[in-house]
Specification:
This protein is mainly alpha-helical. The chain has 2 domains: about 5-185 and about 295-325, Rossmann fold (3-Layer(aba) Sandwich); about 195-290, Tyrosyl-Transfer RNA Synthetase (Orthogonal Bundle). The chain is about 55% helix and about 10% strand. α1 links the parallel β1 and β2 (about 35-40). It is elongated, with a radius of gyration of 22 Å.
Length: about 325
């Protein structure tokens, strides 16, 4: 029996950080053994909010691909490619845009939220229509599922609505992909807020160990713990959130107990966190260094992935054109 198919991707808006790894990339690595996996770099999606030309999308796309490979995505098990290398995405997006009601797009939860929170003009056709492009990204591979967190389920539901509308108008071509709900632990940034590039509080996946150590040592802790002898509350401490992700059960329990009783100080807590982090990220960092030395290898992976992706996308577009009598 063929494996079910999934599609994942991220925008090349800068180097991926620990929040990206924990919330998405680590899960994609695990899923590639269970699914036929397609994973792309969404460079066209970057233009929906950053269309001013100040970002080198070619270089940024390669850097994201390096993060993919360093984290453990295997080109033999996952088709890795850049979105713009598969122009069929754009063709299907155009055709979907002809039949997608405007009201569907205006009710997308992130539409008004991003308009209010981003300090730039995004009152553009591209930004309003990005969910249609997202639908094309997913449906052109006839994905059975999309790995998402709870906050993205509405986006997948819109993809399902677009698939249903197309199938009703032209005949059944597309499956309706389901949301593959995954645990997505939230990591705080170095300042205690949500880890986000826009806040400048991230720790990049590719940061060298000494940079990571310094970042951990400057992180906020429980604000009520002002002295070493004060007992703390790890539930209010962003550092403890990192321990729950990167440290083993015994270390987490020891940190919890030591913080609540003032048995350990924040400096010790952060040192233990760095050691736990390195247990996961030392090999990732070493792989990243090697890929950065040989970006030609990365470009080859993307080129081969695009060729495989175009083969699948071309078959889908053939079926679409036949259904629409184009």
């Amino acid at each position: 029996m063929p494996k079910p198919r999934i599609l994942s991707g991220t925008r090349p808006t800068g180097r991926m950080h620990l929040g990206n790894y924990v919330g998405a990339l680590a899960n994609w690595v695990r899923l590639q053994d269970e699914y036929e996996s397609f994973c792309f770099v969404a460079d066209w999606h970057s233009l929906t909010t950053a269309y001013d030309g100040r970002t080198d999308l070619r270089d940024s796309s390669v850097q994201v691909a390096i993060d993919y490979l360093a984290a453990g995505l295997d080109p033999e098990r996952t088709t890795i490619f850049v979105q713009s290398s598969v122009p069929e995405h754009a063709e299907l997006h155009l055709l979907f845009s002809m039949m997608t009601p405007l009201g569907w797009l205006e009710r997308v939860p992130s539409y008004k939220e991003m308009q209010e929170n981003l300090d730039r003009d995004i009152n553009t056709y591209g930004f309003l229509g990005y969910p249609v492009l997202q639908a094309a990204d997913i449906l052109i591979y006839k994905a059975d599922a999309v790995p998402v967190g709870e906050d993205q389920v509405a986006h997948v539901e819109l993809v399902r609505e677009i698939a249903r509308r197309f199938n009703r108008l032209y005949g059944t071509v597309f499956p309706e992909p389901r949301s593959l709900l995954t645990a997505t632990p939230k990591l705080a940034g170095t300042d205690g807020r949500k880890m986000s590039k826009s806040y400048g509080n991230t720790i990049a996946m590719g940061d060298p160990p000494e940079t990571v150590r310094r970042a951990f040592m400057t992180m906020m802790t429980d604000p009520a713990r002002k002295r070493r002898t004060d007992a703390g509350n790890p539930d209010r401490c962003p550092v403890f959130g990192f321990h729950k992700v990167f440290s083993g059960t015994e270390t987490v329990a020891e940190v919890d107990q030591g913080c609540r009783t003032a048995g350990i100080g924040c400096v010790d807590c952060k040192k233990w966190l760095f050691e736990s982090h390195q247990g996961t990220f030392a090999p990732i960092y070493e792989r990243r260094v090697q890929y950065e030395k040989n970006t030609g290898q990365v470009v080859d992976v993307l080129r081969e992935g695009a060729a495989r992706a175009r083969g699948v996308a071309g078959e889908t577009m053939g079926a679409v054109r036949e259904a629409m009598k184009i």
